[in-house]
TrEMBL record:
It comes from the Bacteria. It comes from Streptomyces humidus. This is Uncharacterized protein.
Length: 62
């Protein structure tokens, strides 16, 4: 495995939308609770608890 790094295997896109300054907040797509993201954000939004669980589920194991 010459020249290969952990980065070669962990290609998860960890970008997140900008935090909202205040309500209205987008709903979590998993549990429907308010997130920290603006309602106008397009795409998948997760509340802090579901975001953490998703990160744990998709984390690369070595």
């Amino acid at each position: 495995m010459s020249g290969e790094t952990e980065r070669d295997y962990c290609l998860i896109d960890a970008t997140t939308p900008p935090r909202a300054d205040g309500p209205p907040y987008a709903e979590c797509v998993l549990c429907r609770k308010p997130t920290e993201y603006p309602e106008s954000h397009k795409g998948v939004t997760l509340c802090p608890a579901c975001e953490w669980q998703e990160a744990q589920r998709t984390a690369c194991s070595g």
